[in-house]
Amino acid sequence: MKAARLEAIGEFHVRAVETPSPGPDELLVRVEAAGICGTDRHLLHGTFPCRPPVALGHEFSGIVEAVGDAVIDFRPGMRITGNPNIHCGRCVQCRRGRINLCENLEAIGIHRDGGFADYVLVPQRQAHELPLSLPPEHGAFCEPLACCLHGIDMAGIRPGGSVIVLGGGVIGMLVVQLARLAGATSVVLVTRQAARRQLAEATGATASFDPGSGNVIEGIGGPDGLLPGGADVVIECAGVAETMADAPKLARNGGTVVILGVMPQGETVAIEPFDLLFREVRVLTAFLNPDTHARAATLIAEGTIRVEPLISRRIGLDALPDALANPPRPGEVKVLVMPGRRD
Coiled-coil annotation: which residues (predicted)? Predict the structure, then answer.
C-alpha cells in the first residue's frame, strides 16, 4: 500500500509500505478521506512533538476491511471515524477523568501510523460507526469537530449570548456553527480573507470583520463597534500571536476566552494580568477531544453541522507532500486527502 510518512523533521514522502494486519482488538480500515490539519504542518516543521518515522493523518474515516479476533462491535463493510487520541486509562489524569491529559497519551497520525495512507489500524474502542449513506468525505470532519465541541463545552455559551471567533480556518468555521447551535444570537468571525468571511456568514455567522480594515478592538468592541463592550465569549481559533493577544481585549467584563488555536511550541504572547483581574476575564484552554468524538460523529451523521461547504480541495496521496509543504491557498478552509484518488 501507499503511505505518506514523516521520516524525520522536514522529510515527508509517499512510499510503498507493507499493508498492516489487525491485532486482536484492532480494525484494518481502508481510508476514504483524511483532512490536512494545521498540526500536520507543525509536525512537518518540528514545532509540535511527534514520533517519526510515522504516517501522518489524524483526521480520517473509512471502511472496515478486516477485524481482529477480539473485535465484537464492528465488521467488514462498516464505515467508521477514528478517534486518534488513545488514553491509557491507568494514570492519575485518566483516573480523574481528564483523559485528554493522559500521561501516556498516544495519537494515531502522530505517534502511530495514521490516515495519510491506503489503510490504517484503529483500536476498537477508538472507532465510531458512521452511516454508509454519508458522503465519505464528511467523516473526516469528526475529529476537528470533536475538538471544537470540547471548546464549546468549556465556553459555557448561553442562549442569547454573543461570541467572537478569531480565525477563519476549519476550526473557526465549525465553531461558528456550534456557537449558533448552543444558542448564541450574535456570532462575529474575524479573518482577513474575504472568501472566508463570506463563507462564515453563509454558514451561521451574524457578522464578520476584516482586521485589515481597521483596529479590531475598536471595530468590534468599541462604542460604535459590532458588539460594543465586547462579547460574552471569545474563541481563539487561529493559533497566531496577534489573535492570542487580541482575544482577552475583545471579551466583555466578566467574559470568557477559550483558546483552541495551536501556536508553535516555544512561542510566547504578552498579556496584561491587571486587565484580566480587574475585568474578571476567564482565560481557558481546550485541548483535544475528551469524550466528544461520539457526539461529533452523531452531528456529522445527522447533517446538523454543514461540512460540504468547508471542503476546498480533494487531492490524492501523491499530491500531499506539496500541499503540506506550502501554506493553504487563499480562501482555503479544508483540503481532504483521498488515498483512492489518483491525480
Answer: none
**Mean local confidence (pLDDT), 143-149:** 98
Contact 49/36 with Cβ under 8 angstroms? Answer: no
Residue carrying C-alpha cell 453563509: 202
- Helix 170-181 crosses helix 142-155 at what angle (to 10 degrees)? 50
Q: Please report, to the nearest 10 degrees, the dihedral formed by the alpha carbons of residues 315, 82, 303, 341 taken in order.
A: 20
Neighbours of 137 (CB within 10 A): 19
Q: Is the dihedral of CA 201, 207, 211, 212 positive or negative?
A: positive
pLDDT the model gives residue 343: 66
Degrees, nearest 5: CA angle 73-124-307: 95
Nine cell digits for residue 157: 455559551
- From the CA atom positions of the chain, what is the Rg in Å? 20
Contacts for 110 with CB less than 8 Å, ≥ 6 apart: 39, 43, 48, 50, 51, 54, 56, 58, 84
Which residue in this structure is represented by grid cell 504572547? 269
The DSSP secondary-structure symbol of 110 reads: T
First to last CA, the chain: 16
Which of 117-126, 258-267, 281-290, 292-301 has the weakest average pLDDT?
A: 258-267
Q: What is the pTM of this model?
A: 0.96
Q: Residue 12 pairs with which residues in a beta bridge?
A: 6
Strands 162-166 and 186-190, sheet pairing:
parallel
